[in-house]
Amino acid sequence: MAERRMVSKAVLHSPSFLAMPVAAQMLYVHLELFADDDGFVATPLQVARMMGIPKRFYQILVDQAFVIHFDSGVCVIRHWLQHNKVSPSRYNPTVYETEKARLRTEGRTYCLCQHDADMMLTQDRVGKDRLGQDRLEQDSAGKLPLSQRRFVF
């Protein structure tokens, strides 16, 4: 982790940032201090706990799209490329290659790849729609025929 970080006034003075609670703003700045050279933070909730900031303020950062949270528990600062430019001689690539592969850049902002965003939306919807369809297919005894049962391991 580098010792110096920059913070863009354009992001911190934006109306959406200033509209957030001060605790969420403070957490954002501290996450930036703990980020690696690609903007990834290994343990964002631990940083929040260390600062005495409740988890709900981290969720505000996720909901307002200031950070992108991954299922692995890692997060990336969405505006990292606006804040920091690490010189090639000092750059250390992130160890979170799987998460980084799911990102694309739009201008100087990280975004989830469209495929990943679509998958997260459709997985939730397919599961709920399929539940209703399974109920309609049940036989009179209230159980699905063996050929239609799905086994989850």
What order do the helices and strands come in, and which of them pair?
Elements: H1 9-12, H2 15-18, H3 22-34, E1 40-41, H4 44-51, H5 55-63, E2 67-69, E3 75-77, H6 80-83, H7 97-101, E4 103-106, E5 109-112, H8 114-136
Antiparallel strand pairs: 1-3, 2-3, 4-5
Structure commentary:
The chain has helices spanning 9-12, 15-18, 22-34, 44-51, 55-63, 80-83, 97-101, 114-136, and strands spanning 40-41, 67-69, 75-77, 103-106, 109-112. It has 153 residues and is mainly alpha-helical. The longest helix has 23 residues, at 114-136. α3 crosses α4 and α3 crosses α5 (55-63).
Descriptive labels:
153 residues; mainly alpha; three-stranded antiparallel beta sheet; 8 helices; 5 strands; globular
Précis, in short:
By secondary structure, the chain is mainly α.
Which runs of at least 5 residues are low in confidence (pLDDT < 50)?
none
What's the average pLDDT?
Answer: 82
Number of β-strand runs: 5
What percentage of residues falls in helices of 4 or more residues? 40-55%
Most strands sheet: 3 strands, antiparallel
Encode the helix/strand succession as letters.
HHHEHHEEHHEEH
Strands in their spatial order, largest beta sheet: 1-3-2
Which class of secondary structure composition applies to the elements? mainly alpha
Distance between the termini: 40 Å
**Strand-residue fraction?**
5-15%
Categorize the overall geometry.
globular
Total helical segments: 8
Radius of gyration: 21 Å
